[in-house]
Input
Amino acid sequence: MAKGKAGFLGTRLKLAAASAVLALGMIFSGYVIGLGPVAQTAQVYWQARHWQPAQAQVLAAELQQIKAYRGSVYRVQARYRYEFAGRQYEGTRVGLEPSDEADNSSDWHQRWYQQLQGAQSSGTPIDIRVDPRVPSRSLIDPSIRWELQLFRLPFALGFTGAGLVAACTCVATLLGLGRSRKQGGALEAGSAPAALRKGSERGSPAILWIFAFIWCGLCWPAAALAWMNPQSAGWVKAFVSLFAMIGMGMVGSAVCMTFMAWRTRSRSSPRRQPGHGKARASR
Output
């Protein structure tokens, strides 16, 4: 019995440790690749709404092509001079993202390079936004690049969701370990305690909701990105749309399972018999 108990506790501790390591890695990756850039873009967009318009003269424009493992990524770089509150400034930021980021989610870099190069050649000033509190901060395009955000969302939701599942597994394992220690580790062979069975029944809708969240977080942005890209082939749109529809089915199943669990719990909950309190009081 002692060896079985030690083996059971060791297995639970290994599962908790592995879940903790997986949770930290997935949540960190989801933040660095997805959540962090999305949050930074949203913050700059919200701040730039109150920046004042100005005009600038383009001094230089360059389109860099960087070789990556899946093709090439592009980065437009610019340098422009503007005047604000009687002082001269120079800026380099083009969009909401930092100027040193490169991607190939759309032709945004190519389009802005052509516009900036044309403005430099003709000497035509361009419209920019300037932060009135810090006039050295400026940017050219204050709009959100939805293609890039949709590209980041699967990493933000999928990786972070998987990390949260691993974190919940770690916490549930440690809580179960604590309960097993209080109960002396007495588990019958081939059968689970009634409380464990009841807890698993309650957790099944939550598990389905978690997997539906991760699935939809991966498939829905990919489907939206494919439909927004006019160069996507028809079979690609149909393929990603099929996975998006499966995600909708998972959400519907989660809703039905949650409703059924709620009805089962409401029926199985004990009801007070009328007159029960009176009978106890008479005793």
In short: DSSP finds six helices and five strands in the chain. The two ends are 46 Å apart (CA to CA). Confidence is low (pLDDT under 50) at residues 185-203.
